[in-house]
Amino acid sequence: MAARVIDGKEVARAKRAEIKARVEALAARSVVPGLAVILVGEDPASVSYVTGKEKASAELGIASLGRRLPASASEAELLALVRAYDADPAVHGILVQLPLPPHIDERRIISAISPEKDVDGLTAANVGRMLLEEPCFVPCTPAGVLELIRSAGVETRGARAVVLGRSNLVGRPLVNLLSRKSYNATVTACHTGTLDLPAICREADILIACAGRPGLVRGDWIKAGACVIDVGVTRVEDPGAKAGFRLKGDVDFEAAAAVAGWITPVPGGVGPMTITMLLDNATAAAERASGILPGSGA
Ligand code: GUN
Protein backbone atom coordinates (compact mmCIF):
# COMPACT_ATOMS: atom_id res chain seq x y z
CA MET A 1 0.00 0.00 0.00
CA ALA A 2 1.38 3.39 -1.02
CA ALA A 3 -1.14 5.69 0.60
CA ARG A 4 -0.96 7.13 4.08
CA VAL A 5 -4.22 6.37 5.86
CA ILE A 6 -5.79 9.48 7.41
CA ASP A 7 -7.02 8.41 10.85
CA GLY A 8 -10.30 10.25 11.41
CA LYS A 9 -10.57 8.99 14.97
CA GLU A 10 -7.21 10.54 15.85
CA VAL A 11 -8.01 13.90 14.19
CA ALA A 12 -11.40 13.84 15.93
CA ARG A 13 -9.76 13.17 19.31
CA ALA A 14 -7.53 16.24 19.01
CA LYS A 15 -10.42 18.46 17.87
CA ARG A 16 -12.69 17.17 20.65
CA ALA A 17 -10.06 18.04 23.27
CA GLU A 18 -10.13 21.61 21.98
CA ILE A 19 -13.96 21.70 22.02
CA LYS A 20 -13.99 20.27 25.56
CA ALA A 21 -11.86 23.17 26.77
CA ARG A 22 -14.38 25.61 25.24
CA VAL A 23 -17.27 23.75 26.89
CA GLU A 24 -15.43 24.07 30.23
CA ALA A 25 -14.98 27.80 29.67
CA LEU A 26 -18.74 28.04 29.10
CA ALA A 27 -19.39 26.02 32.27
CA ALA A 28 -17.40 28.62 34.22
CA ARG A 29 -20.11 31.07 33.10
CA SER A 30 -22.84 28.58 34.02
CA VAL A 31 -23.64 27.89 30.38
CA VAL A 32 -24.17 24.30 29.25
CA PRO A 33 -24.37 23.92 25.47
CA GLY A 34 -27.69 22.27 24.64
CA LEU A 35 -28.09 20.25 21.44
CA ALA A 36 -31.44 18.89 20.29
CA VAL A 37 -31.08 16.07 17.80
CA ILE A 38 -34.46 14.97 16.51
CA LEU A 39 -34.91 11.52 15.02
CA VAL A 40 -38.12 10.47 13.30
CA GLY A 41 -38.56 6.73 12.79
CA GLU A 42 -36.22 3.82 13.35
CA ASP A 43 -34.00 3.61 10.30
CA PRO A 44 -31.09 1.57 11.75
CA ALA A 45 -28.34 3.72 10.23
CA SER A 46 -30.01 6.93 11.50
CA VAL A 47 -30.52 5.43 14.97
CA SER A 48 -26.84 4.56 15.06
CA TYR A 49 -25.78 8.09 13.95
CA VAL A 50 -28.03 9.78 16.50
CA THR A 51 -26.83 7.50 19.30
CA GLY A 52 -23.24 8.35 18.31
CA LYS A 53 -24.01 12.07 18.43
CA GLU A 54 -25.60 11.76 21.88
CA LYS A 55 -22.72 9.71 23.25
CA ALA A 56 -20.10 12.13 21.93
CA SER A 57 -22.08 15.09 23.32
CA ALA A 58 -22.12 13.51 26.79
CA GLU A 59 -18.35 12.95 26.69
CA LEU A 60 -17.79 16.66 26.10
CA GLY A 61 -20.37 18.00 28.55
CA ILE A 62 -22.90 19.04 25.90
CA ALA A 63 -26.50 18.36 26.98
CA SER A 64 -28.54 16.16 24.65
CA LEU A 65 -32.01 17.65 24.70
CA GLY A 66 -33.37 15.88 21.61
CA ARG A 67 -36.27 13.52 21.12
CA ARG A 68 -37.17 10.50 19.07
CA LEU A 69 -40.54 10.40 17.35
CA PRO A 70 -42.22 7.40 15.73
CA ALA A 71 -42.18 7.12 11.93
CA SER A 72 -45.92 7.81 12.05
CA ALA A 73 -45.39 11.32 13.53
CA SER A 74 -47.11 13.97 11.44
CA GLU A 75 -45.42 16.94 9.82
CA ALA A 76 -47.42 19.25 12.12
CA GLU A 77 -46.17 17.37 15.19
CA LEU A 78 -42.55 17.61 14.07
CA LEU A 79 -42.95 21.27 13.14
CA ALA A 80 -44.36 22.02 16.60
CA LEU A 81 -41.43 20.24 18.25
CA VAL A 82 -38.87 22.15 16.16
CA ARG A 83 -40.60 25.46 16.99
CA ALA A 84 -40.61 24.61 20.71
CA TYR A 85 -36.87 23.90 20.63
CA ASP A 86 -36.31 27.05 18.63
CA ALA A 87 -37.99 29.09 21.36
CA ASP A 88 -36.17 27.33 24.22
CA PRO A 89 -33.10 29.28 25.43
CA ALA A 90 -31.53 26.07 26.85
CA VAL A 91 -31.34 24.71 23.31
CA HIS A 92 -28.45 26.28 21.39
CA GLY A 93 -28.45 23.93 18.42
CA ILE A 94 -31.09 21.89 16.56
CA LEU A 95 -30.41 19.04 14.15
CA VAL A 96 -33.19 17.12 12.42
CA GLN A 97 -31.71 13.79 11.34
CA LEU A 98 -32.21 13.18 7.62
CA PRO A 99 -33.74 11.54 5.71
CA LEU A 100 -37.23 12.14 7.08
CA PRO A 101 -40.15 9.80 6.31
CA PRO A 102 -41.61 10.54 2.86
CA HIS A 103 -44.83 12.12 4.21
CA ILE A 104 -42.82 14.97 5.78
CA ASP A 105 -41.56 17.95 3.77
CA GLU A 106 -37.88 18.21 4.72
CA ARG A 107 -37.41 21.83 3.62
CA ARG A 108 -40.51 22.94 5.51
CA ILE A 109 -39.10 21.46 8.73
CA ILE A 110 -35.58 22.82 8.27
CA SER A 111 -36.94 26.29 7.47
CA ALA A 112 -38.49 26.40 10.95
CA ILE A 113 -35.02 26.43 12.55
CA SER A 114 -33.53 29.87 13.28
CA PRO A 115 -30.19 30.37 11.48
CA GLU A 116 -28.43 30.86 14.83
CA LYS A 117 -29.58 27.39 16.00
CA ASP A 118 -29.07 25.69 12.64
CA VAL A 119 -25.91 23.75 13.58
CA ASP A 120 -26.35 21.57 10.48
CA GLY A 121 -25.99 24.63 8.21
CA LEU A 122 -28.96 23.64 6.08
CA THR A 123 -31.31 26.63 6.31
CA ALA A 124 -31.51 28.97 3.33
CA ALA A 125 -29.97 31.72 5.46
CA ASN A 126 -26.89 29.66 6.37
CA VAL A 127 -26.44 28.35 2.82
CA GLY A 128 -26.60 31.94 1.53
CA ARG A 129 -24.20 33.19 4.17
CA MET A 130 -21.78 30.41 3.30
CA LEU A 131 -21.86 31.39 -0.38
CA LEU A 132 -21.25 35.02 0.57
CA GLU A 133 -18.49 34.03 3.03
CA GLU A 134 -20.36 35.64 5.89
CA PRO A 135 -20.15 34.07 9.38
CA CYS A 136 -22.32 30.95 9.27
CA PHE A 137 -22.64 27.34 10.31
CA VAL A 138 -20.89 25.14 7.76
CA PRO A 139 -22.51 21.69 7.40
CA CYS A 140 -20.75 19.15 9.60
CA THR A 141 -19.54 16.60 7.04
CA PRO A 142 -17.93 19.16 4.68
CA ALA A 143 -16.33 20.88 7.68
CA GLY A 144 -14.97 17.50 8.80
CA VAL A 145 -13.63 16.70 5.34
CA LEU A 146 -11.75 20.01 5.26
CA GLU A 147 -10.27 19.33 8.70
CA LEU A 148 -9.05 15.92 7.52
CA ILE A 149 -7.40 17.42 4.43
CA ARG A 150 -5.78 20.11 6.57
CA SER A 151 -4.61 17.62 9.19
CA ALA A 152 -2.91 15.51 6.51
CA GLY A 153 -1.00 18.57 5.31
CA VAL A 154 -2.43 18.23 1.79
CA GLU A 155 -2.05 21.41 -0.27
CA THR A 156 -5.38 22.67 -1.62
CA ARG A 157 -4.02 25.83 -3.27
CA GLY A 158 -3.72 25.21 -6.97
CA ALA A 159 -4.92 21.63 -6.56
CA ARG A 160 -7.55 20.09 -8.79
CA ALA A 161 -10.36 18.90 -6.56
CA VAL A 162 -13.11 16.64 -7.86
CA VAL A 163 -16.27 16.35 -5.79
CA LEU A 164 -18.30 13.29 -6.75
CA GLY A 165 -21.84 13.90 -5.43
CA ARG A 166 -24.11 16.93 -5.24
CA SER A 167 -26.15 16.59 -2.06
CA ASN A 168 -27.06 19.65 -0.01
CA LEU A 169 -25.43 17.97 2.99
CA VAL A 170 -22.04 17.22 1.48
CA GLY A 171 -21.26 17.71 -2.24
CA ARG A 172 -22.63 21.19 -2.88
CA PRO A 173 -21.08 22.82 0.19
CA LEU A 174 -17.69 21.21 -0.56
CA VAL A 175 -17.68 22.51 -4.14
CA ASN A 176 -18.30 25.97 -2.80
CA LEU A 177 -15.89 25.86 0.15
CA LEU A 178 -12.93 24.43 -1.78
CA SER A 179 -13.22 27.18 -4.38
CA ARG A 180 -12.89 29.91 -1.72
CA LYS A 181 -9.68 31.96 -1.93
CA SER A 182 -8.57 30.47 1.38
CA TYR A 183 -8.46 26.98 -0.20
CA ASN A 184 -7.93 28.07 -3.82
CA ALA A 185 -8.62 24.66 -5.33
CA THR A 186 -9.93 24.33 -8.88
CA VAL A 187 -13.09 22.36 -8.33
CA THR A 188 -15.01 20.04 -10.64
CA ALA A 189 -18.50 19.00 -9.55
CA CYS A 190 -19.48 15.53 -10.75
CA HIS A 191 -22.71 13.61 -10.42
CA THR A 192 -24.71 10.78 -11.94
CA GLY A 193 -25.23 12.79 -15.12
CA THR A 194 -21.48 13.25 -15.69
CA LEU A 195 -20.03 11.58 -18.78
CA ASP A 196 -16.80 9.65 -18.35
CA LEU A 197 -16.45 9.91 -14.61
CA PRO A 198 -13.24 7.85 -14.49
CA ALA A 199 -11.39 10.31 -16.75
CA ILE A 200 -12.46 13.29 -14.64
CA CYS A 201 -11.56 11.57 -11.37
CA ARG A 202 -8.13 10.70 -12.77
CA GLU A 203 -7.38 14.44 -12.96
CA ALA A 204 -8.04 14.93 -9.26
CA ASP A 205 -5.26 15.83 -6.85
CA ILE A 206 -8.01 15.72 -4.23
CA LEU A 207 -10.92 13.36 -4.85
CA ILE A 208 -13.92 13.52 -2.56
CA ALA A 209 -16.33 10.65 -3.09
CA CYS A 210 -19.76 11.46 -1.69
CA ALA A 211 -22.15 9.75 -4.09
CA GLY A 212 -23.48 7.15 -1.65
CA ARG A 213 -22.67 4.31 -4.08
CA PRO A 214 -20.57 1.59 -2.49
CA GLY A 215 -17.40 0.73 -4.38
CA LEU A 216 -18.12 3.16 -7.24
CA VAL A 217 -14.58 4.55 -7.41
CA ARG A 218 -12.09 1.97 -8.69
CA GLY A 219 -8.34 1.94 -8.27
CA ASP A 220 -7.72 2.97 -11.88
CA TRP A 221 -9.80 6.15 -11.35
CA ILE A 222 -7.16 7.51 -8.98
CA LYS A 223 -4.25 9.75 -9.94
CA ALA A 224 -0.95 8.61 -8.42
CA GLY A 225 -0.35 10.42 -5.14
CA ALA A 226 -3.86 11.90 -4.89
CA CYS A 227 -5.68 12.57 -1.62
CA VAL A 228 -8.83 10.43 -1.57
CA ILE A 229 -11.58 11.27 0.90
CA ASP A 230 -14.33 8.67 1.11
CA VAL A 231 -17.56 10.06 2.53
CA GLY A 232 -19.68 7.02 1.61
CA VAL A 233 -21.05 4.80 4.37
CA THR A 234 -23.44 2.21 3.02
CA ARG A 235 -24.47 -0.87 4.95
CA VAL A 236 -23.84 -3.93 2.83
CA GLU A 237 -24.86 -7.45 3.78
CA ASP A 238 -22.06 -9.53 5.24
CA PRO A 239 -23.13 -12.87 6.71
CA GLY A 240 -19.63 -13.22 8.22
CA ALA A 241 -20.02 -10.02 10.28
CA LYS A 242 -21.56 -10.14 13.76
CA ALA A 243 -24.21 -7.56 12.87
CA GLY A 244 -24.90 -9.21 9.51
CA PHE A 245 -23.60 -6.18 7.64
CA ARG A 246 -20.52 -4.05 7.24
CA LEU A 247 -19.98 -0.44 6.22
CA LYS A 248 -18.68 0.14 2.73
CA GLY A 249 -17.41 3.40 1.30
CA ASP A 250 -17.76 4.79 -2.21
CA VAL A 251 -14.14 3.88 -2.93
CA ASP A 252 -12.56 0.47 -3.52
CA PHE A 253 -10.15 1.03 -0.61
CA GLU A 254 -7.47 -1.59 -1.30
CA ALA A 255 -7.12 -0.75 -4.98
CA ALA A 256 -7.20 3.01 -4.37
CA ALA A 257 -4.71 2.83 -1.50
CA ALA A 258 -2.18 1.21 -3.83
CA VAL A 259 -2.17 4.36 -6.00
CA ALA A 260 -3.20 7.28 -3.77
CA GLY A 261 -0.95 9.40 -1.57
CA TRP A 262 -3.53 9.70 1.21
CA ILE A 263 -6.82 7.93 1.81
CA THR A 264 -9.52 7.85 4.48
CA PRO A 265 -10.84 4.48 5.67
CA VAL A 266 -14.49 3.51 6.13
CA PRO A 267 -15.30 3.34 8.95
CA GLY A 268 -12.90 5.52 10.96
CA GLY A 269 -12.36 8.31 8.42
CA VAL A 270 -14.98 10.98 7.80
CA GLY A 271 -17.61 9.59 10.22
CA PRO A 272 -15.91 10.59 13.51
CA MET A 273 -15.24 14.06 12.05
CA THR A 274 -18.89 14.64 11.11
CA ILE A 275 -19.90 14.15 14.73
CA THR A 276 -16.99 16.26 15.97
CA MET A 277 -17.87 19.22 13.75
CA LEU A 278 -21.48 19.04 14.95
CA LEU A 279 -20.18 19.40 18.52
CA ASP A 280 -17.97 22.27 17.32
CA ASN A 281 -20.99 24.03 15.80
CA ALA A 282 -23.16 23.39 18.88
CA THR A 283 -20.46 24.83 21.13
CA ALA A 284 -20.08 27.86 18.83
CA ALA A 285 -23.87 28.38 18.98
CA ALA A 286 -23.69 28.45 22.79
CA GLU A 287 -20.68 30.79 22.68
CA ARG A 288 -22.52 33.19 20.38
CA ALA A 289 -25.68 33.06 22.45
CA SER A 290 -23.69 33.95 25.57
CA GLY A 291 -21.63 36.68 23.91
CA ILE A 292 -18.26 34.87 23.93
CA LEU A 293 -18.18 34.84 20.16
CA PRO A 294 -19.16 37.97 18.24
CA GLY A 295 -22.55 38.20 16.55
CA SER A 296 -25.93 37.23 17.87
CA GLY A 297 -26.36 34.44 15.36
CA ALA A 298 -24.74 32.32 12.71
N1 GUN B 1 -28.02 12.26 7.80
C1 GUN B 1 -26.78 11.85 7.45
N2 GUN B 1 -25.88 12.81 7.71
C2 GUN B 1 -26.56 13.86 8.22
C3 GUN B 1 -26.17 15.15 8.69
O1 GUN B 1 -25.01 15.56 8.66
N3 GUN B 1 -27.18 15.93 9.15
C4 GUN B 1 -28.47 15.50 9.17
N4 GUN B 1 -29.39 16.34 9.61
N5 GUN B 1 -28.85 14.33 8.75
C5 GUN B 1 -27.90 13.51 8.29
List the keywords:
Rossmann fold, 298 residues, 10 helices, 12 strands, binds guanine, alpha/beta
CATH superfamily placement of the largest domain: NAD(P)-binding Rossmann-like Domain
Helix share of residues? 25-40%
The assigned structural class equals alpha/beta
- The total tally of domains equals 2
Number of strands: 12
Poorly predicted residue ranges: none
Order of strands in the sheet with most strands: 1-12-9-8-6-7
Number of helices: 10
Output the helix-strand order. EHEHEEHEHHHEHEHEEEEHEH
Radius of gyration from the CA trace?
19 Å
CATH class of the largest domain: Alpha Beta
- In whole angstroms, the N-to-C terminal distance is 43 Å
Globular, elongated, flat, extended or rod-shaped: what is the shape? globular
Average pLDDT confidence is 97
Q: Tell me about the largest β-sheet.
A: 6 strands, parallel
Structural notes for this entry:
The relative contact order is 0.18. This protein has 10 helices and 12 strands. It has helices at residues 8-27, 44-60, 75-87, 106-110, 124-131, 140-151, 171-178, 197-201, 253-257, 270-289; strands at residues 4-5, 34-40, 63-64, 67-69, 93-96, 160-164, 186-190, 206-209, 227-230, 234-237, 245-248, 262-263. With 298 residues, it is an alpha/beta fold. The model has no long low-confidence stretch (mean pLDDT 97). The strands form 3 sheets. A 6-stranded parallel β-sheet has the order 1-12-9-8-6-7. It is globular and about 50 Å long. Helix 6 crosses helix 7 and helix 6 crosses helix 10. Strand 6, helix 7 and strand 7 form a beta-alpha-beta unit. Helix content is 38%, strand content 15%. It folds into 2 domains: 32-114, Leucine Dehydrogenase, chain A, domain 1 (Rossmann fold), CATH 3.40.50; 140-271, NAD(P)-binding Rossmann-like Domain (Rossmann fold, 3-Layer(aba) Sandwich). The longest helix has 20 residues, at 8-27. Guanine binds next to strand 5 and helix 6.
